[in-house]
Recover the amino acids of this structure.
C-alpha cells in the first residue's frame, strides 16, 4: 500500500502491473479492497490503480463536514498527476460511478475510457437528499457497523449470502471498518450534487438503437415515467420495434455488434 499527499489529505493507493492505465473507484461505504478480484484478473495486461477515497479505508478523514463529488474527482486528477499518468480508463461503481461522471465532466481530456456500473446520473430528490443527511447523522451517532449491517441485505441477495458467507463477511467487514466521519461527509456531499445529463463527446459509444439525444444520460426512472404518461410512444432516442429473441430461441440478443 502506498500513500500520497493529495489536495491536503493523505490518500492510500495501489499501483499494480503495466500497460494501459485503468483506475477503479470504489463505492460507499467500501474501500479499494472491493477491487481485489479485478486487480488480480487485469494486472497481467494493464496498469491497475485502486485507491481509498478521502475519508474511506486507509485514507485520511477530512475535516470538512461535506465531501463533494467534485472534490473527490479533483483528488483523482491529482493522483494521476502524482503517478505521471496523462490519461486513464476510469471505472466506478455506485457512488464511484457518480465520481467517475464528475471526473469526466471536469477533466474530459484525462479520460481514455469511462466505465459506469450500478450507478445513476440524476440529482437526488429533496426526499432522497434528506435521507442521505439523516444517514450521515446515523453514521456519526452509531458508527459504521450498525447502519452497515442494515445495508448488507440490499447489497447481496439472500441466496448469495447463504451460498457464499465468506463474501458477505468480507463486504460487512469493509463497511464496519469505514471511518464514520468520512462516510458521513461523503453522504452530505452526495446530497448536494447536481444532476449530470451528458458525457464528453470523445467518450460516447455509438448505440445502434439510439437515433437522437446522443451523449445524453437518461435515468431509467425517466423512461418509466415517460411510458406511464405516453404509453403509445417510446421515449425520444429509443428505436421503435426493437428486435426481440423469438420464443424457444437460445441465441442471446446482441445489442452491441462486436
Amino acid at each position: 500500500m502506498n500513500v500520497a499527499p493529495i489536495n491536503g489529505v493523505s490518500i492510500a493507493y495501489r499501483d499494480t502491473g503495466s500497460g494501459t492505465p485503468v483506475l477503479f473507484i470504489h463505492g460507499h461505504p467500501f474501500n479499494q479492497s472491493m477491487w481485489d478480484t479485478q486487480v488480480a484478473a487485469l494486472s497481467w495486461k494493464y496498469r491497475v490503480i485502486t485507491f481509498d477515497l478521502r475519508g474511506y479505508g486507509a485514507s485520511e478523514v477530512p475535516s470538512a463536514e461535506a465531501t463533494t463529488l467534485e472534490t473527490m474527482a479533483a483528488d483523482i486528477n491529482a493522483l494521476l498527476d502524482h503517478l505521471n499518468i496523462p490519461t486513464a480508463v476510469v471505472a466506478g461503481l455506485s457512488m464511484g460511478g457518480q465520481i467517475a461522471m464528475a471526473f469526466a465532466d471536469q477533466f474530459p481530456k484525462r479520460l481514455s475510457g469511462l466505465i459506469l456500473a450500478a450507478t445513476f446520473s440524476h440529482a437526488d430528490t429533496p426526499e432522497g437528499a434528506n435521507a442521505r443527511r439523516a444517514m450521515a447523522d446515523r453514521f456519526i451517532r452509531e458508527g459504521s457497523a450498525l447502519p452497515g449491517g442494515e445495508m448488507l441485505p440490499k447489497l447481496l441477495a439472500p441466496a448469495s449470502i447463504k451460498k457464499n458467507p465468506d463474501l458477505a463477511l468480507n463486504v460487512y467487514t469493509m463497511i464496519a471498518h469505514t471511518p464514520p466521519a468520512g462516510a458521513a461527509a461523503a453522504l452530505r456531499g452526495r446530497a448536494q450534487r447536481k444532476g449530470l445529463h451528458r458525457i464528453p463527446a470523445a467518450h460516447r459509444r455509438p448505440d445502434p438503437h439510439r437515433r437522437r439525444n446522443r451523449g445524453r444520460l437518461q435515468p431509467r426512472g425517466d423512461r418509466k415515467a415517460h411510458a406511464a404518461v405516453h404509453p403509445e410512444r417510446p421515449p425520444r432516442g429509443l428505436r421503435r420495434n426493437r428486435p426481440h429473441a423469438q420464443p424457444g430461441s437460445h441465441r442471446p440478443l446482441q445489442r452491441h455488434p462486436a
